[in-house]
Amino acid sequence: MRPTSARFLNILVPVKRAVDYAVKIRVNSQQTGVDLNVKHSMNPFDEIAVEEAVRIRERIKDEVKSIRAVTIGPSKSLDTLRTALAMGADSAIHVEVPESAPAPEPLGVAKTIRALVEKNKEIDLIILGKQAIDDDAGQTGQMLAGLLGWSQATFASKVDVDTKNNVVTVLREIDGGSEEIKCKLPLVITTDLRLNEPRYASLPNIMKAKKKPVEKLKPEDLGVDLTPMLETIKVAEPPKRVGGGKVESVEELVGKLKDAGFTAV
To answer: Could you name the CATH architecture of 9-240?
Structure first.
């Protein structure tokens, strides 16, 4: 593992284009997935990751050398990168896949990011959302840390970077409270909702984002195979809920439960 500079920090922020959180999800007519002919936007947890990278630079200023966003997806994913650039990222990488290709699985995404890190050996810190709101897998960050052999801090609700000692203190969400951990750089962080509130990109920054560099790559350029390892057999909507009924007493409730086939244990 290479030594990390105590002076300059290079941050990589993976972002994903997902169905917008406000869209009502519907299964497509082929029952192979959900209808994707709807509004898309950056995965909300990844927005938090971009915001945190920018805030880290605002807090320690000259100690952050670069913030680079990366996405893996079809040509339309460029809009997601432009959003990250408008929020404050300096440059971006677009690993482009065909429009008809299935969405990369978490392991494929982690392998692709690992290849980018090995290609650009200056990266010290990777910040990404704890999960994507489309598949809700919540696996990419942990897999990436394992593949790289880096420290990891998941479900972060507060991040404090000390570049002089190459240590990052992270407050992370756990069941029933929070946990503070200290990690050595290089590090993978996954973001939780309470970490921050992402800023809106201003019109001047949106215009500036169009001039920021975006590097185009393909999976084969990185020696990565994104062929899915899982096969989706069928996607169906859950059964509609049946309305309930009122009872006048506990005895009546017990009787109805017995009639429905439920028995006491």
So the answer is: 3-Layer(aba) Sandwich (3.40)
